[in-house]
Design a protein that fits this description.
The structure is a single chain. The protein is 26% helix and 24% strand. It is α/β, with parallel strands linked by helices and 357 residues long. The strands form three sheets. Strands 3, 4, 5, 6, 7, 14 and 15 form a seven-stranded mixed beta sheet that branches. Helix 4 packs across helix 9. The chain starts with a strand and ends with a strand.
């Protein structure tokens, strides 16, 4: 059996390189050689907490771009040598739920959910992508690997969350937390026509990037109650919608978002609050249940069509994801250092990228 090097969760709290079986593809699949990967707080959380037990013993990683090495004989739209974005989640587009627009909710082939021990993520020398025609995305020539590596998760998550906010031209929106997903939320809100975008954070570098992406106002949560600061900005008027892209307590963050949102407004949650088992919301934010506010968790849209539309924004100068890459490392041996950057509290870190090919 052929083997290759992969970065594997070996036990709770520990991951490292080891030899793993080289993947073999089916007729609808593709083998891709990663050329750039990005590490994520989700990777760190999976290693430290083993929140998804099926990830144990598997290669991890879900943000990558690469070059197609081989395709199955039923793959129609990709050939060896194509530059592609790999999907952050492997939706099953052949499942009946896909016919109802719910393909992304069925991910039995995703390495973090699959019970197949050989079904791994993207941190290895070669990776297998199921259903290549539906899950891979062509990278336009004018888009760099560093720009493209942020499309499948950071941009897709931020943009999906903003779509759920149903922003109308000129509306006032708040983005709680401007990490990489929140920054993409700011960019998406600007593209959707928001008239005023309030970014809430405390880290100077990220606040500066939020302004670059379209934020009109900045609120430092360390300088006082977020609700009070935003009401001071708006003259006491609740905002149209809020994107929750922050960490901390789920109850605190979602309560703040609901409290500052108008009746009939939207709160869209794109944070993963993995450490919280319950969320408690005061009923007065809903006027004790007799007034409407819309609260949703937004799972990133997936699939080739969505990723290629986001790539088109980059190719035509409507969006630039390059500034998210605050640290660019080189070689697979730098992957552990990249994960440590995500684990650190270094305020200069937004996203590390590792160039591997």
């Amino acid at each position: 059996m052929k083997t290759m090097k992969g970065y594997v969760i070996q036990e709770k709290g520990r991951a490292d390189w080891q030899k793993v079986p080289a993947p073999r593809i089916g007729p609808y699949d593709a083998l891709v050689r990663p050329t750039a990967v990005a590490t994520c707080t989700t990777d760190v959380h999976l290693i430290d907490s083993l929140a998804l037990p099926n990830a144990l013993g598997k290669v991890i990683g879900h943000e990558a771009v690469g070059v197609v090495e081989q395709v199955g004989d039923q793959v129609a739209d990709f050939t060896p040598g194509d530059r592609v974005v790999l999907p952050a989640g492997l939706a099953d587009w052949c499942h009946p739920r896909a016919q109802r627009g719910e393909g992304k909710f069925h991910q039995s082939k995703s390495p973090y959910f699959s019970e197949d021990p050989t079904n791994g993520g993207w941190f290895s020398e070669v990776v297998k992508c199921f259903d290549a025609d539906s899950n891979l995305a062509h990278i336009p020539d004018q888009v760099t690997d560093v720009q493209a590596v942020f499309v499948d998760d950071m941009a897709a998550t931020g943009f999906t969350g903003v779509e759920r906010m149903e922003i109308q031209f000129g509306e006032v929106v708040v983005v709680l937390g401007v990490g990489p997903v929140g920054l993409m939320g700011v960019a998406a809100a600007a593209l959707r026509g928001a008239g005023r975008i309030v970014a809430v954070d405390s880290r100077p570098d990220r606040m500066a990037l939020a302004t670059q992406y379209g934020a009109t106002d900045l609120v430092d949560y360390k300088q006082g109650d977020v609700h009070d600061q935003i009401m001071a900005l708006t003259g006491g008027v609740q905002v149209d919608s809020v994107l929750v892209a922050s960490g901390g307590s789920a109850s605190d963050q979602i309560t703040t978002a609901m409290r500052i949102t108008k009746f009939g407004g939207h709160v869209s949650v794109v944070s993963g609050f993995f450490d919280d088992e319950t969320v408690t919301l005061p009923m007065d934010v809903w006027n004790y249940g007799v007034m409407e506010k819309f609260l949703t968790a937004a799972q990133a849209n997936q699939g080739r069509d969505y990723m290629e539309r986001l790539l088109l924004l980059i190719a035509n100068g409507k969006l630039d994801t390059q500034p998210l890459a605050t640290h660019v490392l080189h070689g697979w041996d730098s992957l552990a250092a990249s994960l440590e950057l995500m684990r650190s509290r270094d305020q200069s870190v937004v996203k590390p990228v590792v160039i591997v090919g």
